[in-house]
Design brief:
By secondary structure, the protein is an alpha+beta fold. It has helices at residues 7-23, 36-40, 91-97, 109-118, 129-142, 145-151, 163-174; strands spanning 28-34, 59-66, 159-162, 179-184, 190-199, 206-207, 220-223.
Length: 226
Amino acid sequence: MKPKFSLLSKLLILQYLSVLCYSQEFDFFYFVQQWPGAYCDTKHSCCYPKTGRPSADFGIHGLWPNYNDGSYPSNCDPDSVFDKSQVSDLISNMEKNWPSLSCPSSNGLRFWSHEWEKHGTCAESELDQREYFETALNLKQKVNLLSILKNADIEPDDGFYSLNSITEAIKEGVGFTPGIECNKDSANNSQLYQVYLCVDTSGVNLIECPILPSSKCGSEIQFPKF
């Protein structure tokens, strides 16, 4: 005998399934930090923010929802636009730790708006707008890449270091294998550009990456000055 469900029960089941699907819209985050010296040492160059030259430290690029197969969702809610008032108390922190180096020089709002609308809206099942930016800032505080690398005698001195030594230093410092992305300067040198770490969907806990991005790095890479 087939079980009978009331209309209310069916609606509750559908609601549960829709919430379940929504909560599983992505599998993990990439937390991405970039080295300003490598960003600026390319053919497109860079422009310092209106607040002035950033400190010689890794800056946040973004917190990006991802799928385990390497694909990712984007621009999930066109109606959810960046609202500066929701992060007003975080702005000074964002200016310091999440600066925009794109040209023309800006106050960061265009960059943060892009990050929220392309990536953050796909994380709304877990984090609202304020939580999204605050979570990335907390991760930056938790993962001090420059300190980790300096502790391994890897300095931003225009010197060349093995990709393996950089990877191992970060792995030892945070406990998980990073993804390393490089770019090339005008002399065609492979440079340390971005570091990817993986975070669970809560945005709190670092995890081993289900998949790492393509590195585009040589075996020896330059850590450029800034």
